[in-house]
Design brief:
alpha/beta; Diaminopimelate Epimerase, Chain A, domain 1; TIM Barrel; eight-stranded parallel β-sheet; six-stranded mixed β-sheet
């Protein structure tokens, strides 16, 4: 249950929302900043291109020709000659986990890992560093991105860290060594009894657990080791992540699984005037336990004053987890995964893990809708996507769900019927092109090219009238390209218009490539719509907030490969320069 302390001081909340509110209208004569002589990509309904833009305070005064805009200058106006450079609306990432990502390397640096040897070397080095018996946990190194394309085995982890419980954890799944299994109480007789879903893989001959757990990392009784961060440590490291976002043009984000502690940090930043990105938050809801308790948790989210926040910080909805992961072998599919050495699957009928039965899911979505909250759920496999869309469709017969802008987080595997249903119901797909870029090699090797026909079918969604909002699922480390997953939006746009991937020759179903305007919309107005920010940002139009970026590349006309190398020269947030290269 959420703590009632969340809904506290009326005075403090009133002050926060006052800070969070829009300023009043700005007169045309108050032009503080003019950028001219460039290519202003407005991303308005016509995708019009202009030459210049004028800013007054934190608002856009006008976007028009050089002559029209320069008439607004005064002796106090700052003038910037763009020399032909392109200006875009501030870019938005529809799905990130910045608080956890910022703390990944707080205790010690974690190197890049491309192989099982890299993984085992990490466990060995940590075992040499920490005391015997202390837990060693490595998170979010996905097997699809290792050269061997498999989990480290229980035996390999035993050899690497014989005196320490060791956990290789990716998303909801994990591979454990013998000591970690023992301390977690998981043996050949262990049964899942907490009401949640999951699967303990066992050796078919001995019945002993292999060490691989699917969809039940909650059962691992790991303990944190290493130095403990202070509140100021968390604040400073989170601010560094946000400034890194600014460096690649990102001025808005959605925390895709927000906790109370995350929201507390964001509120402190907003109150201190340090917040350099706009944050929409989807509050995480635990779905294990009595359905009445879960529904009450959803209602308590709706009572939070931040649900009425302004464009800088606002809770927009709730987030659950419907299935496992495609990178770990637990996404819920309509057809069996198939036997696999990569994912260690030896059950020919295995379809993945569905965490929430459909009847319970329907009750959750209904409650969220009644409370005026957006609902979304981590849904990777086509079976999970189909289940969530069926619930949305059932509720749409009696409730105006389209007004809530309900989403599907990830929505990786789909079918034609799901695409059409998504568009018809006005449900938004929150997509991460980085997964196509990094994981196509393994996915095609396991599923085959034909079964991936409806993997991330963005063009078909666009043509059906649906909305795709781009994002990264940034979850570990800092750095636009070194992070897991990379949050460089220009790499993502390049992936969307090429459908090319690392370690993979050719294109993954070229019929789903986007054109350049669609790719830009994915990271601007479409994200703004998904995050209830479209009245404020997402396009460069008179009266909107002045979030925009200057880039060194003409994204509409450059050679295709130049798009992924695009550099941000300047980032403006709320009319203020927050990054300059």
């Amino acid at each position: 249950m959420r703590k009632t302390a969340r809904i506290s001081s009326v005075v403090a909340v009133a002050a926060l929302l006052l800070t969070n509110a829009l300023c009043g209208p700005v007169r045309a004569a108050d032009a503080d900043l003019i950028l001219y002589g460039g290519k202003i990509v407005t991303v308005d309904s016509d995708f019009s291109i202009e030459q210049a833009i004028a800013v007054g305070g934190n608002r856009i005064l006008a976007v028009a020709s050089n002559d029209d805009i320069l008439r607004l200058k005064t002796e106090k106006t700052q003038l910037i000659d763009l020399a032909g450079k392109m200006v875009l609306p501030g870019l938005i990432d529809s799905h990130v986990h910045p608080c956890s990502a910022s703390m990944t390397e707080f205790d010690h640096p974690i190197g890049d890992m491309d192989s099982i040897a890299d993984v085992l070397d990490y466990f060995k080095s940590r075992a040499d560093t920490v005391e015997d018996g202390r837990w060693i946990v490595l998170e979010q190194v996905f097997i699809t991105r290792l050269r061997e394309q498999r989990y480290p085995t229980r035996e390999e982890l035993d050899l690497a860290a014989p005196k320490n419980p060791a956990v290789f954890r990716t998303g909801p799944d994990a591979s454990l060594n013998s000591l970690a299994l023992k301390l977690s109480g998981i043996d050949k007789d262990f049964q899942i009894t907490d009401g949640g879903s999951g699967r303990i893989e066992k050796d078919p001959k001995t019945g002993e657990p292999t060490g691989i757990l699917r969809g039940c990392k909650r059962l691992v009784k790991s303990e944190e080791s290493g130095k403990k961060p202070t509140d100021q440590d968390r604040y400073d490291r989170l601010l560094a992540v946000f400034k890194s976002y600014n460096s690649v043009g990102i001025t808005g984000i959605c925390d895709g699984s927000a906790s109370d502690s995350n929201l507390t940090l964001y509120k402190r930043m907003l109150q201190r005037g340090d917040l350099p990105v706009r944050i929409s938050a989807q509050q995480y809801i635990d779905t294990i336990g009595p359905i009445e308790q879960i529904q009450q948790s959803i209602r308590e989210v709706a009572q939070d004053p931040l649900c009425k926040g302004g464009p800088n910080l606002r809770i927009i909805g709730v987030k659950t987890f419907l299935d496992g992961g495609m990178l770990t072998g637990s996404a819920y599919m309509t057809k069996p995964w198939g036997l696999s050495k990569i994912y260690a699957i030896d059950d020919s009928e295995y379809r993945g893990v569905l965490f929430i039965p459909k009847d319970r899911l329907l009750a959750m979505v209904k409650t969220a809708t009644e409370c005026g909250l957006q609902f979304t759920s981590h849904s990777v496999g086509d079976g999970a996507v189909e289940t969530l869309l069926d619930v949305y469709e059932d509720l749409s017969k009696a409730m105006p769900i389209h007004e809530m802008r309900h989403c599907i987080t990830h929505s990786n595997f789909m079918c034609r019927e799901s695409v059409d249903k998504l568009a018809r119901l006005k449900v938004i797909a929150l997509a991460q092109p980085a997964w196509l870029y990094l994981d196509t090699r393994t996915l095609t090797q396991h599923f085959g090219y034909d079964r991936l026909r409806w993997f991330q079918p963005w063009r078909t969604i666009f043509e059906a009238g649906g909305i795709v909002a781009g994002g990264s699922d940034h979850m570990q480390k800092t750095g636009a390209l070194r992070s897991i997953n990379p949050y460089d939006p220009f790499l993502a746009m390049w992936t969307a218009i090429t459908r090319q991937a690392k370690w993979y020759d050719g294109q993954l179903h070229s019929e789903e490539v986007l054109d350049r305007k669609q790719a830009i919309r994915m990271y601007t107005i479409n994200c703004a719509w998904a995050l209830f920010q479209d009245k404020f940002v997402g396009s460069l139009e008179k009266g909107k907030l002045a979030d925009f970026v200057v880039v060194d590349t003409d994204l509409l006309n450059c050679p295709t490969d130049a798009m992924r190398r695009t550099q941000v020269l300047r980032t403006y947030f709320d009319g203020q320069l927050v990054f300059k290269r």
